[in-house]
Amino acid sequence: MSSVFSKIIAGELPGRFVYRDDTVAAFLTIAPVRYGHVLVVPIKEVDKWTDLPASEWLHLCEVAQKIGQAVVEAFQCQRAGTLIAGFEVPHTHIHIFPADDMSGFDLSRAMSPEDTVPAEMDRAAEAIRGVLGTDDQGRS
Hints:
This protein is of the alpha+beta class.
């Protein structure tokens, strides 16, 4: 069975994409610690990041760094936080989020999907895409 991330990447579920190439997709999470919280995900469904081929892991990290730089610029935050957990969805993903303190590093404090404001989510995605120069599907 496909992961929820595979379904988002395939267009079976909606997603606010900010980046996409042939091996990686990046989209906003539905449960952000802060608006602008992005998940960077390999297209290939691999549960643990340690099981990715080294070249794919390197590319995933390069994209995560690029998104992190865009998040800092778009949200004028001190840093881009990053986490790798992987317990919530069995598909490798890197969390990237605006960070001005350590609060974002506690995923248990994330907003529920019901508590997010769709217009704020849209604005966050647009801000990141504006820095990256990508369209609403995350393509250059």
